[in-house]
User: What shape does this take?
Amino acid sequence: MIDLPVTTAPSGDLTALASRINAEHDEVIKHVQQGADHAIRAGKLLLEAKIAVRHGDWSEWLATNCRVSERTAQV
Assistant: This one.
């Protein structure tokens, strides 16, 4: 976690401050998109595994091999 000091006094340069705010917001958007991309890829891999696992063995295989709950895998 990033620990950033929060000042109560204005920095004086509101243009620079706005630029920094926008840059941080851009980073949030980028990382949210990257997280969504990873979630989609994980879901596709789960579907591939479910097809490959013998019928009736999915829950056990998932619990033994993955760090996600069955409910998370369903989502």
Remarks:
- Helices lie at 14-52, 58-65, 70-74.
